[in-house]
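name: query_chain
kind: protein
chains: 1
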Amino acid sequence: MIDLYTWTTPNGRKVSILLEELGVPYTAHPIDITKDDQFAPDFLKISPNNKIPAIKDHDNGLCLMESGAIMWYLADKYGKFLPSDAIGRAKVHEWLMWQMGGLGPMAGQAHHFLQFNPGKAPYAETRYATEVQRLYGVLDKQLEGQDFICGDYSIADMACWPWVARYEWQRVDLTQFPNVLRWYKALRARDAVIKGYQVPKDVGEVPRGEP
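structure:
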């Protein structure tokens, strides 16, 4: 049994989508970051950096923070969505790190300046909007001629998709990135993705990807 401590953010959804895809039992514990639940002493024992998501694996007592590390651990543990050969694993890790170091942080800054603080910092708005557009272009090129980021469906796809699902906050028109749009809609059609998106609570319809 896995305890998942999470909220309705892209990083939180990465792990709940993976858990749904794995089909393993887990219990979701809401950590409402709008109410500072992430600073509660009990949560800090599991996630010392006061960030979601975090997990506790009751099979071995492991507590783990950082969404990428959690996805890597779960894919390894259950032997799914991560290739067994060294080259295949390296490519999935490459694109997982691309999301962790690029798409996630840059899109997160775009959310801050474009969605929640528009008009306060024009330079920052332009900087992060431009970088997000560049990253979508990188992803679009990677998806050319293949269904998923690393060929087969993997944790790399599950890590990137929740960030792309907030394309509206980033002022991105997915029709300008046809390979990303095709990929986005294909994942959106997966039951596990939809279920994972609504953890720990239903937030309404998942964005469709088109205006």
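note: The radius of gyration is 17 Å.
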